[in-house]
Amino acid sequence: MRAPAIVLALVATVVTIGVAAAPVDAPAAATREESKPMGPIAIDVHLSAEPMPGVPLAATVTARTDAVAVDRLAIEVRADDSAELAVGAPSGLVERAGSRSWVVTVVPMHASGGNLTVVVFGEIDGVVQAQSVTTKIRSAGAGPTVRALATAPAPAGSENLSLLPVEERF
Amino acid sequence: MKTVSWRGAQFAVLGLWLHGCGGGSDPAPSPPTPVPVTLQGTVTFDLVPAVAGRGLDYPQTVERPARGVTVEVVAAGTVLASTATDSAGHYSVTVTPNTEASLRVRAEMVRAGAPSWDFRVVDNVNSDALFTLAGVAFNTGTADLGRDLHAGSGWTGSAYSAPRSAAPFAILDVVYECVQVVLSASPAAVFPPLQMKWSTSNSPVTGPGFGEIGSSRFVAGVGIELLGAAEQDTDEYDRHVIAHEWGHYLERSFSRSDNIGGSHSITDQLDMRVAFSEAWATAFAGIAMHDPIYVDTFGAGQAHNFSFDLEQSPNRRNPNAGWFNEEAVQSLLYDLYDNGRDVAPGTLTLDDLALGFGPLFDVMINAQRQTLALTSVFSFIDALKQVRPADAPLIDQLTMAQGIRPVANEYGTNETNYGVPSKRTPQEVAADFHGVYDTVAVNGPAVNVCSLDDYTSASTGAGNKLASRRFVRFAVTTPGPHVVTARAIAPLNGAADPDLKLHAPDGSLLSSTGPPQCTIDMPQACVESFTPTLAAGEHVLEVYEWTNTNDTSDLYPPIGRTCFDVTVTR
Lengths: 170, 570
Prior knowledge:
The structure holds two protein chains of two kinds.
Chain A: H1 4-11, E1 33-35, E2 41-47, E3 57-65, E4 71-79, E5 85-87, E6 91-96, E7 99-108, E8 114-124, E9 127-137, E10 161-165, E11 167-169
Antiparallel strand pairs in A: 2-3, 3-7, 4-8, 5-7, 6-7, 8-9
Chain B: H1 6-21, E1 37-47, E2 50-51, E3 55-56, E4 62-65, E5 70-75, E6 78-84, E7 90-95, E8 100-106, E9 108-111, E10 117-123, E11 129-134, E12 138-139, E13 145-146, E14 148-151, H2 167-185, E15 194-198, E16 217-219, E17 223-226, E18 228-229, E19 233-234, H3 239-254, H4 272-288, E20 293-298, E21 304-309, H5 326-337, H6 357-365, H7 367-370, H8 377-387, H9 392-401, H10 426-430, E22 437-439, E23 447-451, E24 469-476, E25 480-481, E26 483-490, E27 498-503, E28 509-511, E29 527-530, E30 533-534, E31 537-545, E32 562-569
Parallel strand pairs in B: 1-13, 1-14, 10-15, 15-17, 22-24
Antiparallel strand pairs in B: 1-4, 1-7, 2-3, 5-6, 5-8, 8-11, 8-12, 9-10, 10-11, 16-17, 18-19, 20-21, 23-32, 24-31, 25-30, 26-29, 26-32, 27-28, 27-31
């Protein structure tokens, strides 16, 4: 296992597409996060350049599957907020052994960027199967979006509750 | 509606009191004691079914009772009365009449004594605030009252345009079902507290922002984090997903898991500890939900999904069956539990066992927790065969149907299935296996083990896959300091970096330290060694090339097959 000092300088040079890299001296498994199973279709999203506000860039979406046969593999792309991220229609389908790729043009409208959600779906063993990946497209150096709290902070000393409306019937 | 206005009730009581004071010189009587009123009703929530092939099926939304949740009557910030709903969602409390109050339903299941539990759904982007349904103020009046409360999904036909009040209670409803299954085997179970962290901001993005949790997951010491970002990935109605994560909590709380975590899919060839733990969690989800169809929904309108059937339909061909594959192991566990007679692919084996949950849970909380081996399908099946010897032939049939040879012991010593490697031929890879575990004698000759990256997954990368970490057994007969050494010998095609972890019989885990890196130019740096003081007994040493435990996108991606000479000396 590498010493932390060896790698810190290198980490800074990596384009992370808005995803903070974990310290490389710590194996990911050490966190012991037990996540939900993933679907049978793998999706990679690769950006052609570092995101800049107002500058279009190509996102190459590659889908792979371990299944022997996949029928009617298709793609769906969307931004979670079109005011933050403009997304074009997928084009340029390329098929290689075991994978299919599309190119999607995206334009971050602000430095904070937005989320691009890609869903790839097809039929495997007679069942419609899908997988989704959400990628944050953000300029280098831009901080994460800070979301407003859903509710007002609780008064000091009182129990911290997140109040939800309820329908009362009587 | 049987309510009396606050002002009207005040006058009525005052009138009675004045009437009692009228005339005469008798001592003034005490005011009549207010008669408590009973407040009762039912708490329900919207449950949106997750359907394989269709995603969340909003038109089929049903109202379900919120079971075992806390209901409070609150006045001016003070709790006047509190109770828990029953198995039909009913609550009933007595309260002071003529009081301005409101109802509050807490997204929690709490019970003291034996059994006991403390499960809460909190808003992780709001300082872990407890989700609570907040009713409007009313006057308790003088007559018994009925007030039902319903939490809606917030779906208004094409989007979530109203608050998603039902979500925390849909999550708790899964927990309620999970608890019932455990209580069926262990009626006095004491569950450690658990928080389910959910938010509409919880997105499948991994990052430092609020709610960027990456995936629904169980994190020991933290709780269960659940996705809630609409149009991206929501899990509050994906009941098997919630139960899967709760199955991890159950395993960590009552049994033992040596799972190293990481991304995984059902077709992967995994480190056996990952494969078993994930399989346990998914099989438990099927058991607790009384449904073998696992569904995970996401995407626009939550209309996309992936699904699989724990029962494995006869036309399903698992490409990677074996002890390292979670689909194989989860179906094995489910077949041990259920009373189905599904035909395994490619065989005529029938599932004739129907053990139910109790025997499986007994193994989990006893032998699986205490095994000297690492937790895997071998330790589990070996223990099950020992406590149920009469069932051993049928158990063997089921394991064979999943590509696992009849289990001889907790170390899987007779296993010869090494899967389907993606980079080299099966014959080449098989030469790097001497079994699931290698064995080295203390003060004996070195044993050569190879850390591999031949099982990298297209879906989930390399980090936690079969044979990236190799296991070496040794028996300590003379307690004391032992020198444990791994020397990288071939191939030195990169900056090799051996690492060692030692699993001691008392359950402790010891790791080597130091950052050796070596190349063909620095072979002297290819040795990692440490000197733990060991007690007598069986030990398991985990040996691996560090980069082979990284993902392919890591700054230090796997360098591939790297072999070590391992020795242990006293």
